[in-house]
Each structure stands twice: as structure tokens, then as C-alpha cells.
């Protein structure tokens, strides 16, 4: 059971103050009965709620896929920088979604946002071994010795030994390389620090996949959409 005004305001119909005004005007119905008590407790999953004659579609959780752009931080709010939540429409912001894990400020690509705390935990916990796949451009030639080092587990600058990671070479010259990296953790600046540990520098980084979910090629940087039922089922399979 939830307060009626909370249910309606969370679905983007206005603030709780607005909902109180709607109720006073007789614009809210619950199961065919006009309700003027905006604070009444209602089961939103079993009751039919209408606002000004329009039946509301109740959702407790939202699940979004974003193509995160460069220069935006993976946070819900910040006093200096634009956040990924700032890029959302108001009717999605009202659900108070948060990024699942994080991408560095200058890293682009697939970022999930949700208000489902349980799914978030399952996706970011190393014990569930959720693959995160990145495309990266490196300043030097990457070779088989790097592949072996990543497979054995890179030790970062703070002494932490990473889990086994998969490194694939797309192209490699003395001037630089293109690679694909698969990890199952999300340590701070992890991919960049892994390459630093083998004497190389990441100059461009994009996350392409997360938990089997592939970044929608139709999404430009800064754009997002809701997950399909099949995509959500895929994530939950972890």
C-alpha cells in the first residue's frame, strides 16, 4: 500500500501539492470512486487509478539504457558537472533512477540506470561474474604478452589483483592499437589502470556491452531509451 499522492506524483502527473489540488477538484478516481483524500493508502498494482479521466499506468521500477557522452559524470547529482540523470526527461527523473556502476567522466558508451536496488546489486557485485566489454584505443602496440598478463590478473598500482580479464587485439601497430577488453569488476578507472600496469595508456574508451546487453547502435551519445522485456530478462538471468 502506498499514499495516493506519492503514486501519482511519481508517475509525472505533478508534485504532491498538485495532486492535492487535483483531489480537491474531484479529478482523481480510485476503482470508479472519486477520492478527495490525497493521502489515502492504495494498492497501485490492484487498483484502477484515474487522473482527470485518464487511467494511469503504474510502474514501481524503470530500466534505462543510455549511450553516455563524454564529459558527463555517472552520478545522480553534482555541484559542478552535468550528470547522467540531468540528461533524463522529467517523467523518468521522478522515479529517482541511479546509474548501475559507473563510467569515468571521459568514457562513453553503455550505461544502465534504474531505481531497482536489487538488480543493481546483482549487476555490480563481482560474485555474479557479469561481463562488461569495452572497446579501447591504446597509445602503443598491444601484443600477446599483454593478453597473457590480463588473463593471469593484472595487479593495479594500489596492490589489488584484478580477476582474470580477456584482452582481444583488433589491430596493433607501433603507433597504437585497438582492442576489446572484458572484465567482471568495476574498480575505479580499472581498464585505464590495467593498461598503465603494462606500460600503456588508454586514449579512448567505450563500453559496448554489459551483462550480455549490447549498446543500441541507434542511440547517439547522450540519448537513452527504456529496456525491452527481453533485455530486462537477459539482465535478470544473472
UniProtKB/TrEMBL annotation:
Keywords: Isomerase, RNA-binding
InterPro entries (alphabetical): PsdUridine_s_RsuA/RluB/E/F_cat, PsdUridine_synth_cat_dom_sf, PsdUridine_synth_RsuA/RluA, PsdUridine_synth_RsuA/RluB/E/F, PsdUridine_synth_RsuA/RluB_CS, RsuA_PseudoU_synthase, S4_RNA-bd, S4_RNA-bd_sf
Listed Gene3D superfamilies: Alpha-L RNA-binding motif, Pseudouridine synthase I, catalytic domain, N-terminal subdomain, RNA-binding S4 domain
Pfam families: PseudoU_synth_2, S4
Annotated TM spans: none
Methyltransferase in keyword set: no
CDD domains named among the record's database cross-references: PseudoU_synth_RsuA, S4
Family annotation (SMART domains): S4
Enzyme nomenclature, EC number: 5.4.99.-
Any GO molecular function: 23S rRNA pseudouridine(2605) synthase activity
Domain named RNA-binding S4: residues: 2-62
Signal sequence range: none
NCBIfam families: pseudouridine synthase (TIGR00093)
Family: Belongs to the pseudouridine synthase RsuA family.
Name of this protein: Pseudouridine synthase
